[in-house]
């Protein structure tokens, strides 16, 4: 069970011309963010606006989302708990996601910063929104927590993951696995922030220093 609050404020990195990631109007408190992996699929879901469904009449997209939720829950609950499994399922042990409420199409994702990256030790929140025709169209994934990363824009939008080349065979776990890898190995060729990409290539030590400082300030 993970509990975190969103930290607001701060202008570190302003010298690079970068605004902090995240909506300053957003407010997440420990009482509003309390994730506990569900034991089984969600029994009642909403198929977006104007479409209320029960477990006995789920649409194809709802069934697909519930299946992926169940798979993520198995990993989070430790059903794949051996050392071999933990290695096999890396980085899936770093994140968990689930519906914010009764809307199966709107998730909150909690991500631990990968070891070996400047985000290690941090806990990051992301919004994941599924379209009604998922998986034929890609979900939308946005950082709510502030993060200093050249592939994440000041609004939390992400570039350089499977979302940029989506197919119906892709899954949430593919997106999150790729994001974890991207946090370890940024891609200047798919930068969401050209200024940060330039800093990373010309002054990597400073880039990493600021990324670590943002993690300490905004993700702990």
Automatic annotation (TrEMBL):
- Identify the residues that the record assigns to the UBC core domain, covering every copy: 60-220
Q: Which Pfam families match?
A: UQ_con
Report the PANTHER family cross-referenced here. Answer: UBIQUITIN-CONJUGATING ENZYME E2
- From the Swiss-Prot or TrEMBL record, give the protein name: Constitutive photomorphogenesis protein 10
- Please name the source species: Porphyridium purpureum
């Amino acid at each position: 069970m993970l509990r975190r609050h969103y930290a607001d404020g701060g202008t570190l990195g302003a010298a690079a011309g970068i605004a902090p990631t995240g909506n300053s109007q957003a407010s997440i408190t420990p009482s509003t963010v309390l994730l506990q992996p569900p034991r089984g699929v969600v029994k009642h879901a909403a198929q977006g606006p104007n479409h209320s469904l029960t477990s006995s009449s789920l649409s194809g997209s709802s069934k697909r989302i519930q299946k992926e939720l169940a798979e993520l829950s198995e990993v989070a609950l430790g059903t794949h708990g051996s050392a071999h499994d933990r290695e096999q399922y890396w980085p899936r042990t770093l994140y968990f996601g689930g519906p914010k409420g009764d809307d199966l199409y709107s998730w909150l994702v909690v991500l631990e910063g990968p070891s070996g990256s400047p985000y290690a030790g941090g806990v990051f929140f992301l919004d994941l929104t599924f379209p009604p025709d998922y998986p034929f169209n890609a979900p939308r994934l946005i950082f709510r927590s502030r993060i200093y990363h050249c592939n994440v824009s000041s609004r939390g939008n992400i570039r350089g993951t499977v979302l940029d080349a989506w197919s119906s065979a892709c899954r949430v776990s593919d997106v999150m696995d790729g994001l974890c890898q991207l946090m370890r190995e940024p891609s200047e060729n798919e930068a969401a922030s050209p200024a940060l990409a330039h800093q990373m290539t010309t002054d990597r030590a400073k880039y990493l220093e600021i990324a670590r400082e943002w993690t300490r300030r905004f993700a702990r």
